[in-house]
Design a protein that fits this description.
Blueprint lengths: L14 H9 L35 H7 L7 H21 L18 E7 L1 H5 L3 E7 L5 E7 L12 H6 L1 E2 L7 E2 L17 E7 L12 E5 L3 E6 L6 E6 L4 E5 L7 E4 L11 E9 L4 E8 L3 E8 L4 E9 L7 H9 L9 E6 L6 E6 L4 E5 L17 E2 L2 E5 L6 E6 L6 E6 L3 E6 L7 E4 L5 E6 L6 E6 L4 E5 L9 E3 L8 E6 L6 E6 L3 E6 L11 H10 L4
Length: about 550
């Protein structure tokens, strides 16, 4: 059925390959001939230089390696060794030079105005300087602005009104909630925005009419205090009752922490803020006081950006020392709370602080108090204490300022609307010395950081008086006056790092930087003993 058979092979030529080969073409090109050039250069002049030090004197080295033999030297050193070591240990334990600050500046025989700082926007809005504070480096001055207005014309300036609000200048019939005011026609409180400004006075590029940094704030800034160790941190109190901490080293969102308008915070304007060392935690907190009688201690929680309430104190009329309670009623005080208008911390005792009130009261208080406050303040997360432990003779009006002496643990000075400055001892109720500073109000008093007997007082007449308690005369040792129309000096601040600099804030929105003379900054050897003698006096 099937058989083998062989057939011839058939081959097919590729038509595609031939068609492709037919379209191939060869092309070629050649560049032009390359030109090459060689060049050499040679310097015309050559020079060789060298130096040689002088021959080394090996005598000093030989003296150290082979000290000369001095008869009796070794015995003398061994004999005085114990005495020298004992004296060195005594010097190491001595505190004689703890507060000594050498002056690197050239002696100045005159007091002069070196800067007049102003923020144009603040002046255009007629804002007043309410507080000034120097940074811990002594280079930056921070300035708080705000503006307040007077009560309605129908409201008389009675003692009860003084208890409610803090007056400003007598001449212009103005009343102020902190340290400044402005009169308007509608008799309502101003709601304009305010600000905090800073200037670095050491910069060569300093512009007196333009601040280095401006922090806009929604309401008036009533208190300001720079951090004692962090140059960029500033604590501030607002008219709204808020307490804030700004970090000026940030580029955005300068608010490091704030209290907000919480139920356990301030409900009245904050008159004073101060940095306080927390002994148990080893950190710094913020102590704030308001016109509602609340004194609150806050700790900083930078992670959450908030100030956390650490301790709370309430100044109540029924819990004041007996003498203060009777004086308070005699002055027409009807409120159960004591409005705080000024506060000062003792640099010697971390638990002691002083407060001044709208009614003129001066009270010594203790942060360590465990006396429960008799108050209706029920929505507080910490126990509320009554801190008042001792009362002093009151002023004739609201107490604007208190400052404790940095050179004596018992002395402090106070000033108020009665135009008086009182020198007090913490151990006596009556003042050791009373000075008539001004016919107007005294807005701030502050001790010099370098002179134990010198303090400054800012007045409503625009003058800043410097009193030297070592002089026989009670007249000012110097008076700082600015040219032009008189503007009330609402605040002042000595530079702790550079005691010759004094910053003064005024109601025209300017901050004056004064350089004090050497006489006002350098202490004499007898000042501490004179201060101790004043402390030992018995008040009349």
């Amino acid at each position: 059925m099937f058989t083998d058979e062989s057939v011839d092979s058939v081959s097919l030529q590729s038509v595609w390959r031939k068609s492709e080969q037919a379209t191939l073409e060869s092309r070629g090109c050649q560049t032009t001939a390359l030109h090459r050039t060689e060049a050499e250069v040679q310097t015309v002049f050559t020079s060789v230089g060298f130096s040689q030090t002088e021959p080394q004197d090996d005598s000093a080295q030989q003296l150290l390696l082979h000290p000369p033999h001095a008869p009796g030297l070794r015995d003398f050193l061994r004999r005085v060794e114990d005495t020298v070591i004992r004296e060195l240990v005594k010097n190491a334990r001595s505190h004689a030079f703890d507060r000594f600050q050498p002056s690197w500046e050239d002696p100045s025989q005159e007091t002069s105005l070196v800067h007049c700082l102003r923020h144009r926007s603040a002046q255009e809005n007629e804002l007043h300087v309410t507080s000034v504070s120097w940074s811990c480096t002594g280079s930056v001055v921070a300035c708080a602005y705000g503006r307040y207005v007077t009560p309605p014309p129908s409201l008389s300036l009675s003692p009860s009104w003084f208890h409610m609000r803090k007056p400003l200048f007598k001449d212009t019939e103005c009343v102020c909630m902190c340290v400044c005011t402005r009169r308007i026609d509608d008799g309502d409180w101003s709601t304009k925005r305010a600000c905090v400004c800073t200037w670095n006075v050491d910069l060569r590029s300093l512009r007196s009419d333009q601040a280095d940094l401006v922090i806009n704030v929604p309401t008036a800034v009533t208190a300001l205090c720079c951090h004692p160790t962090q140059p960029a941190w500033i604590a501030g109190g607002l008219y709204s009752g808020e307490v804030l901490v700004w970090d000026t080293s940030r580029t955005q969102d300068l608010v490091l922490a704030q209290t907000g308008l919480s139920a356990e915070g301030h409900r009245e304007p904050v008159y004073q803020v101060a940095w306080l060392c927390l002994q148990k935690k080893g950190e710094l907190g913020v102590l704030s006081a308001d016109s509602g009688g609340r004194v609150l201690l806050w700790t900083l929680d930078s992670d959450r950006g908030s100030l956390v309430l650490h301790a709370a104190y309430a100044l109540l009329q029924q819990q004041l020392p007996h003498s203060s309670s009777s004086r308070y009623k005699a002055r027409g005080g009807s409120s159960s709370t004591v409005g705080v208008t000024s506060l000062a911390l003792s640099p010697w005792d971390p638990d002691t602080f002083l407060v001044g009130s709208e009614g003129g009261l001066l009270l010594r208080c203790s942060l360590a108090s465990r006396v429960p406050a008799v108050t209706a303040w029920q929505d507080c997360s910490v126990p509320v204490r009554g801190p008042a432990v001792f009362s002093f003779k009151p002023h004739g009006g609201p107490v604007h300022s208190i400052h404790c002496s940095p050179f004596h643990r018992n002395l402090f000075v106070s000033g108020g609307t009665d135009g008086m400055a009182h020198l007090h001892s913490l151990l006596q109720a009556h003042p050791l010395l009373s000075l008539r500073v001004s016919e107007s109000y005294v807005f701030q008093v502050q001790w010099s950081p370098s002179r134990p007997l010198l303090f400054a007082a800012a007045t409503g007449q625009g003058e800043v008086h410097l009193f030297d308690l070592g002089r026989r005369s009670l007249r000012p040792a110097a008076t700082l006056e600015q040219s032009g129309p008189a503007q009330a000096a609402t605040c002042l601040s000595f530079n702790r790092r550079r005691p010759e600099l004094l910053a003064v804030g005024r109601t025209d929105g300017t901050v004056s930087i004064w350089q004090l003379s050497t006489e006002l900054t350098e202490r004499s050897g007898q000042e501490t003993s004179v201060l101790e003698h004043l402390n030992l006096q018995v008040a009349e």
